[in-house]
Amino acid sequence: MITYRLALATEAEALKALLWQHGQNEWNHLTEEGVNGEFELLKQGGASAMVAVHEDEIIGFAVLIDAVHSPDYLNQYTGQNVMYFIGDVVVASQHSGKGIATALLQACIAQAKHAGGELVLIERHEENLASAGMMRKAGFQIIDTFHDPQKRSAGSQNSCILAIEL
């Protein structure tokens, strides 16, 4: 059975290792600076992580970032809404295709709503079909697509911003 809960501060290094092992592919933009910054936000309380646990092992996680600490370019999509941003989402490859990532997104959405959020944003490569599926199943809808060659080196080099209103 898989359970979902908030990550503990002591689990940060295990989460980071999981991300580097299972999160890198042609569609994802993982940089040392970006990953370290996200984990620094976790440490400082500007973000939280929902984890998926199977038999006492963390097999996936999703990071929910407070609006104040979200990337500045997302401000154009928020209007006056209280916004949260879902950063990295990863599931160990041996557990992919089981709906775990979608459940992690849903847990983040519920957490944002509980905290008074009105809008949750997430981003992906336009052609990343696995991410597209999990985001669609969690209720996200595309609100923008733009050419993003600084971040995307594969395929169309386009990024999509998706949103769900709470």
UniProtKB/TrEMBL annotation:
<dbReference type="InterPro" id="IPR000182">
    <property type="entry name" value="GNAT_dom"/>
</dbReference>
<protein>
    <submittedName>
        <fullName>GNAT family N-acetyltransferase</fullName>
    </submittedName>
</protein>
<dbReference type="Pfam" id="PF00583">
    <property type="entry name" value="Acetyltransf_1"/>
</dbReference>
<keyword id="KW-0012">Acyltransferase</keyword>
<dbReference type="GO" id="GO:0016747">
    <property type="term" value="F:acyltransferase activity, transferring groups other than amino-acyl groups"/>
</dbReference>
<dbReference type="InterPro" id="IPR050832">
    <property type="entry name" value="Bact_Acetyltransf"/>
</dbReference>
<keyword id="KW-0808">Transferase</keyword>
<dbReference type="InterPro" id="IPR016181">
    <property type="entry name" value="Acyl_CoA_acyltransferase"/>
</dbReference>
<feature type="domain" description="N-acetyltransferase">
    <location>
        <begin position="2"/>
        <end position="166"/>
    </location>
</feature>
